User: Which sequence fits this backbone?
């Protein structure tokens, strides 16, 4: 009986935190939808492609120079916070801020120094050197904001983090859209710098109030951060590989096709990885620290991973099926009819999200075990597969082929990640994960073939029926697993009981 209660609590815990951060992600996405629609209408595919290339380039420089502080600092600060060691926490916060300042300056100068190379190899003509020089403050401001966000995560200020993310997206809408309306493409670089500045200001307003700023470049203080820097090395290298892979893909598309093709690719990527993938973003906030806490308990460890896969897959599958059904309308709503060439690619990428729902929780196993080398190897392998198969797919089948390449890379990487976790960490997929995967992925594939059919009866009648079936399956399983309905009833009863006593 105790085990059943524990199971129920575990499923409820996962649902609770995915719901909390998922709600924030939904709000961010809704605001982002309005902004992206405005940007797409004002700048068109070429402008969207230009923003994508600039963002990919500065992200690559930032990932290469931030020493993984936005990720590695969280673990150190969380340990201090959990132990209640206020003095050590204050010292470590000063260490994080000092190292963040150094990485910000390093990123600034590296971006300026590499501006000619970025211009030459990102674009088909060498005319954007000045733009990359002017974008260098983005790298520095993002590094400083990353350190402050790590502090807030470490001390569990999740509500503040949620508010910052909402205000940041809202500021992007209010500040950048008028600039694009007035100045067109020439406002892209100033807008990117402005948004990096706004993110930093929003973050320090909260973090400085909690912990007043203290930065020192004394060797004795900086030496305390070497453990954090060593831990972050794997994140840095993985970030370089990931950002580099995206930059290579976008640069290749720009050079062999045109900037509009980059805009189409970015639109398809954004719609699936960001909008359809918001459940993943909500999942990661709670899952990683919870998994790290039980990394030495084999049964509990496997159980947490499998339950996370179950809940994530059951939550996202109905969303993905409806996403597939209404994708043409969503492209028109989110962008414009100019972006319809991205439809086929986006449909394939939606299918890849089913695979990602299984793969992502397993990918966190090496990190939770402290095995940064394995994490780096697996991430590097995925990036290699992604670049190779997307470029091959585009060569053979244009944007639809690129989508097939990305989906194939995800499937192959799932096999590698699971095989590695099976052999090295003794991880096993549960039978329920296998069953739910087969059911929901089969429904997803059937919806995919229906929506690509020329027959309206299949495109709408059969596809809609399948979407409702996916929803019913997920709701029934989640209700039975989590005891969610009984919990809600008990809360209502307790509330009325308290009122009656009063």
Assistant:
């Amino acid at each position: 009986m105790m085990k059943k209660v524990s199971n129920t609590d575990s499923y409820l815990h996962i649902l609770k935190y995915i719901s909390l951060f998922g709600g924030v992600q939904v709000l961010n996405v809704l605001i982002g939808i309005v902004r992206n629609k405005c940007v797409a209408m004002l700048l068109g595919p070429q402008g969207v492609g230009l923003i994508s290339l600039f963002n990919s380039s500065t992200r690559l420089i930032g990932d290469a120079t931030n020493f993984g502080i936005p990720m590695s600092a969280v673990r150190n600060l969380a340990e201090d916070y959990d132990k209640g060691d206020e003095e050590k926490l204050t010292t470590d916060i000063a260490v994080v801020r000092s190292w963040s300042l150094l990485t910000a300056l390093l990123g600034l100068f590296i971006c300026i120094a590499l501006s000619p190379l970025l211009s030459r190899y990102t674009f088909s003509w060498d005319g954007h050197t000045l733009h990359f020089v002017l974008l260098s403050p983005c790298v520095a401001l993002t590094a400083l904001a990353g350190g402050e966000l790590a502090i807030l995560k470490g001390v569990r200020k999740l509500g503040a983090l949620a508010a910052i993310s909402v205000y940041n997206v809202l500021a992007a809408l209010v500040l950048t859209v008028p600039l694009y309306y007035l100045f067109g493409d020439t406002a892209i670089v100033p807008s990117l710098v402005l948004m990096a500045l706004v993110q930093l200001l929003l973050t320090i307003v909260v973090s400085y109030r909690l912990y007043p700023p203290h930065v020192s470049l004394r060797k004795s203080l900086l030496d305390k951060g070497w453990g954090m820097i060593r831990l972050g090395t794997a994140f840095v290298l993985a970030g370089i590989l990931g950002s580099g892979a995206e930059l290579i893909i976008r640069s290749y598309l720009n050079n062999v096709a045109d900037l509009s093709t980059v805009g189409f690719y970015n639109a398809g990527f954004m719609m699936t990885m960001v909008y359809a993938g918001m459940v993943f973003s909500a999942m990661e906030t709670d899952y990683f620290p919870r998994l790290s806490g039980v990394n030495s308990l084999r049964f509990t460890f496997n159980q947490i991973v499998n339950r996370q896969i179950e809940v994530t897959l059951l939550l996202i599958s109905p969303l993905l099926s409806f996403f597939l059904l209404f994708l043409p309308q969503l492209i028109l709503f989110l962008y414009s009819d100019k972006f319809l060439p991205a439809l086929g690619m986006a449909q394939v990428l939606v299918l890849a999200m089913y695979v990602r729902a299984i793969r992502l929780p397993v990918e966190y196993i090496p990190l939770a075990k402290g095995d940064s080398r394995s994490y780096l190897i697996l991430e590097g392998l995925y990036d290699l597969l992604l670049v190779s198969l997307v470029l091959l797919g585009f060569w053979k089948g244009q944007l639809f082929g690129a989508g097939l390449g990305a989906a194939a890379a995800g499937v192959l990487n799932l096999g590698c990640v699971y095989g590695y976790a099976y052999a090295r960490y003794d991880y096993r997929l549960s039978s329920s994960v296998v069953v739910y995967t087969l059911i929901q992925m089969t429904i997803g594939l059937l919806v995919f073939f229906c929506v690509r059919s020329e027959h309206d009866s299949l495109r709408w009648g059969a596809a809609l029926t399948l979407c409702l079936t996916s929803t019913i399956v997920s709701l029934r399983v989640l209700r039975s697993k989590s005891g969610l309905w009984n919990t809600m009833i008990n809360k209502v009863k307790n509330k009325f009981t308290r009122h009656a006593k009063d």
